[in-house]
Amino acid sequence: MAADLRDQLARACQALAQRGWGTSTSGNASVRIGQDIYLTATGMPLAEVTRRNLAHTKLDGRTVGSTRPTKEALVHLAIYANCPEAAAVLHVHPAHAVAASALLGRRAARYVPPMTPQFVMRAGRVSLVPYFPPGDLALAAAIRKCPADRAILLQNHGALAFAASPSQALGILEELEENCKVWLLSGGRGFLTASQERLLLGRSM
Ligand SMILES: [Zn+2]
Predict the structure, then answer these.
(1) What pTM value is reported for the model?
(2) How far apart are alpha carbons 51 and 42 in whole angstroms?
(3) What spacing in Å lies between the alpha carbon of 160 and ligand 1's midpoint?
(4) Fold adopted by 2-200
(5) Which residues are bridge partners to 30 per DSSP?
(6) What is the CA(43)–ligand 1 centre distance, in A?
(7) pLDDT of residue 37
(8) Residue 55 — very low, low, confident or very high, per pLDDT cuts 50/70/90?
(9) Do 171 and 162 meet the contact criterion of CB atoms below 8 Å apart?
(10) Greatest CA separation found in the chain?
């Protein structure tokens, strides 16, 4: 089982890179196996991630071994602390999600406006966290205050998705990026009403 999740993580990282969401060495990912967290290493391009070059920490952040984890490890640890069911966290900076986060942040929005049923059913209600520099302790603290849902948008930064497996988290990221693209194309109008959203929340695809 332990081997499976790390192999699945490597495959999800390749998929993220193929979508162009891991520009340069940006983007990072992790899985949790019991009290152990396996994260992409600092400076590691997503396309080159394998189960053998992952960094290893404990749930409390102590590093095991000599491979240094991503500089955004605190964000991953905050998600695992906040969401006990999460066994995989993916974090990337897709263009539409970042553009939407910047506009929504200016409007002081707390949630991503839902544009389609498939977004609500796959990603649920997605919180927007105000801007903090990557790796900042305050960013991890803000994430810990979010509802334990399935995804979070970070203002002027990127998207986080978390689930029981890397492939589920990847599906959530895809719906979040698509929803942000549609929201931008629609000029920020035409989103589902609160009652339409409520009818869809709790349903899954
Ligand atoms: Zn980031």
Answers:
(1) 0.94
(2) 15
(3) 9
(4) L-fuculose-1-phosphate Aldolase (3.40.225)
(5) 39, 89
(6) 12
(7) 98
(8) very high
(9) no
(10) 51
Q: Looking at residue 3, what is its pLDDT?
A: 54
Give the neighbor-by-neighbor strand order of the sheet with 88-92: 63-64, 55-58, 36-39, 28-33, 88-92, 158-163, 151-154, 127-129
Q: Where are the domains of the chain?
A: 2-200
The CA–CA distances, whole Å, from 192 to 54, 98, 174, 179, 199 equal 40, 21, 19, 11, 11
Residue 72 CA to ligand 1 centre (angstroms) = 7
Q: Where are the beta strands (DSSP E) in 16-109?
A: 28-33, 36-39, 55-58, 63-64, 88-92
Q: 169 C-alpha vs ligand 1 centroid, how far in Å?
A: 16
C-alpha–C-alpha distance, residues 31 and 45, integer Å = 17
The C-alpha atoms of residue 161 and residue 174 are separated, in whole angstroms, by: 10
Least confident interval from 23-27, 92-96, 137-141, 149-153: 23-27
- For residue 183, give both structure tokens: 């929201």
- Residue 60, exposed/middle/buried by CB under 10 A (0-12, 13-18, 19+)? exposed
Reduced to 3 states (helix: H, G, I; strand: E, B; else coil), residue 178 is: helix
